[in-house]
Amino acid sequence: MTRRPDPLAAFRPAVRRWFEASFAAPTAAQARGWPPIVAGRSTLLLAPTGSGKTLAAFLAAIDRLMFSTEPPKKERCRVLYVSPLKALAVDVERNLRAPIAGIAAVAGASGETFRVPVIGIRSGDTPSADRARMSRTPPDILITTPESLYLLLTSAAREVLRSIDTVIVDEIHSVVASKRGAHLFLSLERLEMLRASDRPLQRIGLSATQRPLEEVARLLAGG
After folding, report:
1. What is the pLDDT of residues 158-204, one digit of tens each?
2. Is residue 3 part of a domain?
3. Residue 45: in which H helix or E strand, if any?
4. What CATH number has the domain bearing residue 27?
5. Helices (H), strands (E): how many in the chain?
6. Per the domain annotation, does 7 fall within a domain?
7. Residue 82: inside a domain, yes or no?
């Protein structure tokens, strides 16, 4: 019998140990999603609610951010998460704390060198003082909405986005067939043009109900 590859094999030891201590096993969405995501390929994940899609999308980025050399301050922002709902954005920010804290505890106990990623939220509710601070000292992970992403891209604060290498679009089905979606996908193309890297932006789309998959994938992939 052919043994299936371990979906956790590509992660660093502290990440693997944290996951194995926290969960019985990877979900199907995680096991199938991690290989292309870890490889840096754009990925569309269609899986039911509660299937671990968010962790499937974020774990590779957390692994990379926590165990890589800290970049210069102005090049720190590497992961962009776009939520169609401000409430979901707040939930995701809160839910990322557990894996980051857990991995940090495991790495610290074994003497591994790591850093704790900073998470920032930029929405219509973000106070102006927080926006200014974010421009001066960008977070590692920026959580935003389609409208706030557009405003970022059309302001001086867009410089924060030049170092983005991964964008995660959650609940992609809720915007894909609307003017809001057209606006978002245009923003992603503007982000691609703004970025300092020659490597294409990694785009990860998440949803439980995205249909038709081929059309959603085409829109997510863009130009």
Report:
1. 999 999 999 999 888 777 777 888 889 899 999 999 997 888 899 99
2. no
3. strand 43-46
4. 3.40.50.300
5. 9, 6
6. no
7. yes
Helix or strand run (H / E) with residue 190? helix 179-194
* Residues sharing a CB contact under 8 Å with residue 145, sequence separation 6 or more, in sequence order: 82, 83, 84, 85, 86, 89, 123, 124
pLDDT in tens, 143-162: 999 999 999 999 988 999 99
**Cβ(216)–Cβ(208) below 8 Å:** no
Q: How far apart are CA 131 and CA 213, in angstroms?
A: 36
The sign of the torsion formed by the CA atoms of 140, 166, 104, 52 equals positive
- Contact, 100 vs 92, CB < 8 A? no
- 16 Cβ contact list (under 8 Å, min separation 6): 8, 9
Domain that holds residue 171: 13-221
β-bridge pairing 141-144 and 119-122: parallel
What residue type is assigned to position 119 of the chain? I
Q: Contact 41/33 with Cβ under 8 angstroms?
A: no
At residue 120, φ and ψ (nearest 5 deg) are -125, 150
Number of domains in the chain: 1
Burial 127-162, CB ≥16 within 10 A → b, else e = eeeebeebbeebbbbbbbbbbbbbbbbeeebbbbbe
How many whole angstroms separate alpha carbon 74 and alpha carbon 89? 23
Would 40 be classed as within a structural domain?
A: yes
φ/ψ (deg, to 5) at 202: -80, 125
In this prediction the pTM is 0.92
